[in-house]
Design a protein that fits this description.
Distance between the termini: 47 Å
Strand content: under 5%
Strand order of the largest sheet: 1-2
Largest sheet: 2 strands, antiparallel
Structural class: mainly alpha
Number of helices: 20
Radius of gyration: 24 Å
Shape: globular
Length: about 575
């Protein structure tokens, strides 16, 4: 736990400093005013995530030339020091804006204490828990490959799951601190959860009574975010890409809706959040449809003829995505593995088309609740009942609520078009984008773990819109107060149940000896075989190999060979 907090301090120092510089540059370009300086204390989480995106890209680029370890961190620290020297006064003023109000009143002191408590609780959860099955299968090994070699050609020939490249593996390698602690830390998933918890904490404003409480459209989604964060609390010790991407989806949507309600000019924030959504896609490629939220700032930039803003946004998207795609090609020979689209590269380590298709079908069937490939052609009416019956009761409720929300969303859009009032295109685009993302997830690989953000956000967003519109339209104050109070009571009851579940999860691991060190990756039993004189490990237990027995493959690959004389030359099959 102490290691986790030390790791987070380092992550915050580097990501916030880098993110502040990026935020400042983007702000000036998007505002089309080179002399404009962002106000102190604006959008701290956007700054942190812009920094995380930047250092992730940095780690990915570094991995193209070698292992991401101590040397990469030394350069990062020099860059951070330079930025602190250049922007030190501004950053100091920015930080003081957050801290100077920490204890100015009893309410502020309580809020500061709650924030500190949340930090300790999330650090506790990040220090121990259930190590995800995919982490033991390949996440830990993928991170170690980046730590030691960066990226090697044909790595997916050794282990097919390495083809599922995720930008968060490079982020974990950069911040693993193995060069200090002697073990590879995996605390960045918890850090994303911590940022999500800070966003969710703003739900407190609903319970702040002045004349009457004010419910923002983002508040129901905050309630959903709290559910999701509590759901993965026992698992966030594992660097599973689903946790990063889905937490970011919640955060981006909440900050987007808040900007719409509160910002004088929300378009620069929309543009930055769209850039962050592109970053989220490099963490989990399957959420790719959500980048269409960028249409909102794109239309605004074009309409205002902000050429600099357009160029900066396009360049930002390319800078984020190109290193990710290059890593994809080097690992598997394909840009979008296991998709066979954009098949431009004829390299000798390329995963065959047949194997990629098989892998894609296998993942899709697993998401639908099958392990038998004979069901690959099953129609919706066959696999949907099987999938639904395999869900837990609460998951079934979320799934049914999502189906109802998709239908209600269509009705809502139709009403928006036929009513005389001006159409809210921002809402319409968000609704269409998230509906499309939900349907894509459901039809491709509807494993609940892959799509928790969808089945929570859709009902919370759609019915939240209907509820907020209802509150605005009702002129009868007693009825309005009753409906508002009902939301508050339901939210409070829900939060109490989540708190109970959180205490239960904490009690499960309270005796684990992880108060100083973070729980290490598992170390599975394995046997070995040789490939051109190199020893390869194979797990005895369903591929659960962990981190230490390196390199590994899920089974003996008979036709596997080194491409050269060393592991850094990669793998080929013939």
């Amino acid at each position: 736990m102490v290691q986790v907090i030390i790791n987070w301090l380092y992550i915050t120092l580097t990501s916030y400093t880098v993110g502040y510089a990026i935020y400042r540059l983007l702000y000036k370009a998007l505002k089309a005013d080179v002399d404009l300086v962002p106000a102190e204390g604006e959008n701290p989480l956007i700054k942190v995530f812009l920094g995380l995106a930047t250092v992730t890209v940095y780690a990915e680029i570094w991995s193209l030339f070698g292992g991401v370890g101590l040397a990469a961190n030394i350069v990062l620290m020099f860059a951070t020091t330079g930025l602190l020297f250049f922007y030190g006064k501004n950053i100091g003023q920015d930080i003081s804006h957050y801290t100077k109000f920490a204890f100015v009143s009893p309410k502020a002191a309580i809020l500061t204490g709650v924030s500190a408590l949340i930090t300790v609780i999330v650090a506790y959860g990040t220090s121990r828990g259930y190590m995800h099955i995919d982490t033991n299968l390949y996440h830990a090994q993928a991170i170690r490959w980046i730590e030691e070699y960066g990226v090697v050609p044909g790595l997916a020939n050794l282990h097919g799951r390495f083809g599922y490249n995720s930008a968060e593996f490079a982020l974990n390698a950069l911040y693993s601190m193995r060069w200090i602690f002697g073990q590879s830390l995996h605390a960045t998933a918890g850090y994303f959860v911590l940022m999500g918890a800070y966003v969710a904490l703003d739900l407190r404003k609903v319970f702040t009574f002045k004349e009457k409480p004010h419910i923002r459209l983002s508040d129901p989604i905050r309630v959903g975010l709290i559910f999701y964060l509590c759901k993965i609390f026992i698992e966030m010790v594992a660097p599973a890409s689903d946790y990063y991407a889905q937490t970011m989806i919640f955060i981006i949507l909440i900050l987007w809706l808040d900007a719409k309600d509160e910002a004088e000019d929300p378009m620069p924030i929309y543009a930055m959040l769209s850039i962050l959504m592109a970053y989220a896609v490099t963490i989990k490629l399957s959420i790719g449809l959500l980048v269409f939220i960028a249409i909102v700032p794109a239309v605004s930039l074009v309409k205002n003829k902000n050429i600099k803003g357009i160029v900066v946004c396009i360049v930002s998207g390319l800078v984020i995505s190109i290193p990710f795609f290059i890593r994809n090609v080097i690992i598997s020979g394909r840009m979008l593995y296991p998709s066979t689209a954009f098949d431009f590269f004829n390299v000798d380590w390329k995963i065959s088309r047949e194997e990629a298709i098989f892998d894609r079908q296998e993942i899709g069937l697993y998401g639908k609740g099958y392990i038998d490939m004979s069901h690959v052609e099953d129609p919706l009416k066959v696999w949907v009942p099987n999938w639904f019956s395999g869900l837990h009761n609460l998951e079934k409720l979320w799934a049914l609520a999502t189906a109802a929300a998709l239908i209600a969303g269509v009705v809502y859009i139709v009403i928006q078009f036929v009513k005389k009032k001006e159409t809210d295109w921002n809402r319409i685009l968000l609704l269409v984008t998230f509906s499309a993302g939900t349907l894509f997830w459901f039809t491709q690989a509807p494993l609940i773990r892959y799509g928790y953000a969808y089945i929570i956000i859709m009902p919370m967003f759609v019915f939240g819109m209907i509820y907020s519109d209802l509150l605005e339209s009702i002129k009868n104050e007693p009825v309005n107060n009753f409906l508002t109070g009902a939301f508050l009571v339901c939210s409070l009851f829900f939060l109490m149940t989540r708190a109970y579940n959180l205490v239960t999860d904490i009690s499960i691991t309270v005796n684990d000896d992880c108060y100083v060190n973070q729980q290490d990756y598992d170390d599975g039993e394995a046997f070995t075989y040789e490939v051109d004189g190199v020893t390869i490990y194979v797990a005895n237990d369903s591929g659960q190999i962990g981190y230490n027995k390196f390199p590994s493959s899920p089974f003996v690959v008979d036709d596997l060979h080194l491409r050269g004389n060393d592991l850094k030359d990669g793998f080929i099959r013939y």
